[in-house]
């Protein structure tokens, strides 16, 4: 599980370092993203979907949908996912350096003991919550976020027949319970000196569930805003795994007034 989260952290670090440029790379089609579906560097931030048989800038499109630059940046620059298993591709050195940096920072925090680790864990937890509140407060001032919230709270009974839905739900439950289980193991080392072990573990699980739910509200608010900006339905923007998060939120924040 640590390796799994560290891989995600490497993506975040790559976005962090990429944001230090004068022009955010996921707001336009640069040299690395002028591949499949990205029209040109002169086009707006959000591009509408175009059928496969149309031409753009005098060139035929070779993908079913024209995608936004933020989508291409995540798939073609950050993860560089190859759909064919037979061709694993090459090593992304920038992502490898970010992964190494994440492990080094984690090691430096853990090696100094639990006191140092506790201090470094509290600050990010509070900052993430404040950051989510800031994004939600900003995105709700722009049109379109209601579409994402409507899609988020709409229930599709036919989804209960899909095994993938149950798999995702079980994964979320396992991750939420995992925080409480880890806390039980950590506090259990103190033996009989600590009496509020179960109480604190339950609180951690509840806080994790609330923050996870609020994170979903924020992400789908951004999804609705971006979907309205490109005249695209929310369902067409949803992707597997973390694709929706890393494609929608950066695009939404970059297109807000005063962002870039």
TrEMBL record:
It is a multi-pass membrane protein. Na(+) binds at residues 176, 208. GO terms for cellular component: plasma membrane. The lineage of its organism: Eukaryota, Metazoa, Ecdysozoa, Arthropoda, Chelicerata. Disulfide bonds join 29-38. It comes from the Eukaryota. Belongs to the sodium:neurotransmitter symporter (SNF) (TC 2.A.22) family. This is Sodium-dependent nutrient amino acid transporter 1. Its main location: membrane. Residues 1-21 form the signal peptide. GO terms for molecular function: amino acid:sodium symporter activity; L-amino acid transmembrane transporter activity; metal ion binding. One of its GO terms (biological process) is amino acid import across plasma membrane.
């Amino acid at each position: 599980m640590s390796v799994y989260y560290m891989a995600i952290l490497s993506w975040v670090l790559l976005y962090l370092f990429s944001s230090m440029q004068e022009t955010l790379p996921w707001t336009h089609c640069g040299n690395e993203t002028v591949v499949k579906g990205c029209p040109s560097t002169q086009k707006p931030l959000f591009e509408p979907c175009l059928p496969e048989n149309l031409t753009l800038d005098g060139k035929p499109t070779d993908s079913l949908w024209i995608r936004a630059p933020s989508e291409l940046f995540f798939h073609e620059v950050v993860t560089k996912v190859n759909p064919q298993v037979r061709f694993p591709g090459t090593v992304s050195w920038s992502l490898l350096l970010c992964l190494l940096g994440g492990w080094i920072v984690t090691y430096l925090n853990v090696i100094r003991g639990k006191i140092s680790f506790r201090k470094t864990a509290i600050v990010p937890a509070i900052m993430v919550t404040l950051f989510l509140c800031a994004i939600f407060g900003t995105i709700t001032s722009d049109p379109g976020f209601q579409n994402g919230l409507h899609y988020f709270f709409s229930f599709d009974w036919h989804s209960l027949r899909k095994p993938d839905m149950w798999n995702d739900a079980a994964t979320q439950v396992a991750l939420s319970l995992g925080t409480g289980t880890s806390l039980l193991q950590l506090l259990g080392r103190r033996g009989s000196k600590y009496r509020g072990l179960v109480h604190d573990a339950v609180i951690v699980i509840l806080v994790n569930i609330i923050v996870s739910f609020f994170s979903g509200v924020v992400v789908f608010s951004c999804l609705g805003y971006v979907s309205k900006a490109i005249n695209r339905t929310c369902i067409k923007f949803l992707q597997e795994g973390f694709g929706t998060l890393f494609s929608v939120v950066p695009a939404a924040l970059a297109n807000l007034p005063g962002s870039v």
